[in-house]
């Protein structure tokens, strides 16, 4: 029997528990999106940071600093950049997202997107500071565009990553609740 959703889910809808496979798959897809050869990298959001922030806000007990560090090392190795720059930035991003997770969840999606914009800008700033400390030149203020586009994608990411957790509308007549 196919699962049917009646109306769009509200903020009060009950979600199914998240599957760890969903978390791994979303992180893998985000890594693949980050590794694509984009023409102008400054205008592309950091998909790994966005997905990491999502899971740290939604599931702070499952995804945390260790996941941020590991995803950062994989990003560093995949992009061939200074080893540890993304690991540090993603760890601090995960810490900030976990710290603010309860606060962020109180806001509607646009308010959550503002919080996420601050977190993504912070992570981008940390990464830029590490590059500057290693002797690179200042990349310009265009590096702030990617995190802002990522924050605009927050509602889309929210809907996509919560699809598997949405409660089906099947009514079980044998249950009291």
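-> sequence recovered:
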């Amino acid at each position: 029997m196919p699962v049917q959703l009646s109306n769009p889910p509200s903020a009060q809808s009950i979600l199914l528990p998240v599957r760890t496979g969903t978390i791994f798959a979303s992180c893998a897809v985000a890594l693949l999106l980050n590794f694509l050869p984009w023409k102008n990298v400054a205008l592309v959001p950091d998909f790994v940071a966005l997905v990491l922030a999502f899971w740290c806000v939604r599931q702070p007990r499952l995804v945390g600093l260790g996941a941020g560090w590991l995803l950062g090392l994989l990003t560093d190795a995949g992009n061939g950049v200074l080893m540890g720059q993304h690991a540090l930035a993603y760890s601090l991003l995960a810490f900030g997202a976990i710290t603010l997770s309860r606060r962020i969840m109180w806001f509607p999606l646009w308010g959550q997107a503002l919080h996420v914009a601050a977190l993504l800008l912070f992570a981008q700033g940390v990464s830029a500071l590490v590059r500057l400390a290693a002797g690179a030149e200042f990349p310009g203020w265009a590096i702030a565009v990617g995190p802002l586009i990522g924050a605009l994608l927050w509602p889309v990411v929210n809907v996509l990553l919560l699809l598997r957790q949405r409660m089906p509308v099947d009514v079980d007549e044998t249950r009291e609740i």
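The two ends are 22 Å apart (CA to CA).
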